[in-house]
Each structure stands twice: as structure tokens, then as C-alpha cells.
Amino acid sequence: MAKAARPLFIGLCAVLLASCASFSTPPETFDLAPPRTASIQGASRAQLLIPEPTAIRTLDSQQIAIMPTSLTVEYLPRAQWTDRLPRLVQLRLLEAFQNTGRAGAAGVPGQGLAIDYQIVTELRRFEISLESGSAVVEISVKALNDQTGQVRAAQIFQSSVPLTGSGNAASVLALNAAFANVTDQIVGWTLRLV
């Protein structure tokens, strides 16, 4: 091959490889279902701020966590959340409080509410546990008085839902059910507390 043609050949190969890569199958993208609120008891006139939950790096992404053992983390193949998981949980919790119609108001930082309480959360578990064959969601919650900075109360909420099928959709369905259970617990507890 002539020296002048070699750079052209290499460039053509690079373009062909890039175009082949662009035809790869995109990952399935999943959302958390809008929270149900019909069975939630309690009411409050308090205005609530829902900050983004804290989470370890394995949960602070769009990837969907799988725990083959209690010490190993993998991710659901070719699957992702619609947004970073902490942001998604924050917005679904906000939606749950708003949907009840039983809170004075609920918002996220930057919305200019006169806040009574911050509902501070930490994602501890949000995964498919292969050891137990279930979806596990565990969220730690603190109700923080925004005026005094004191924690009114703190609690850990957890739900485990068995997997009833195989594949990405079945895994996400179980995670949605576990998250819905935890959301109901958090919203009910908060409205009774504040």
C-alpha cells in the first residue's frame, strides 16, 4: 500500500468501526412508578422540603444494582433508570407527598417554600438480592426541624419483594413494588409526625 494511501485507509477503518458501534442495542430504560397514596393516613399543615437522598456511589447512578452476595455488586445488564437513582427517588417522594393532598406543601430545594421540616433521606439499599431472590429497598429518614436544626425523629424503612419472573422487566417490577411499600411507610410516618 502506498504511503499516501495509508492514512486514508486508517481513517476509513476508524469511520467504519464507529458506525458499527452506533448500531449497538441501546439499554432498556426503566422508571419508578408514580407512588400510590390512597391508603396513607395522617395529615399535616407543615411545609416539607425533600432534598436529594444521599447514597453510596454504587447507587448514585443510572445503573440498576444487583447483589450476587452481600459483599459483591453488579448491575442489571443492558438496563438503566431514567435518571440518577437519588434524583429519581427524590422526585417520586415529592410526588407522593403532593398526591396525598394532606401536607401543607412539599417541594425541593430552590422552590422558595417557607420550610417547616426537611425530610432528609439516605438510600441504604435499592437492589436485586440474588441470595434472597428478592428486590430490597431500604431508606433511612430523618425529619429535621428547619427552624431549630433539631432532628424530630429518625427511622429506617425497608421492604423486600420476591422476584416472580426473570429478566430486566421482572426485576424492575419487584423494585417498584418494594419502593412503593417504603414510600407509603415514609409518607404516612411523616404526616403523623409533623
Automatic annotation (TrEMBL):
The keyword Lipoprotein applies. The keyword Transferase does not apply. Keywords: Lipoprotein, Signal. Pfam families: ABC_trans_aux. Residues 32-187 form the ABC-type transport auxiliary lipoprotein component domain. Residues 1-24 form the signal peptide. This is ABC-type transport auxiliary lipoprotein family protein. It comes from Aureimonas populi.
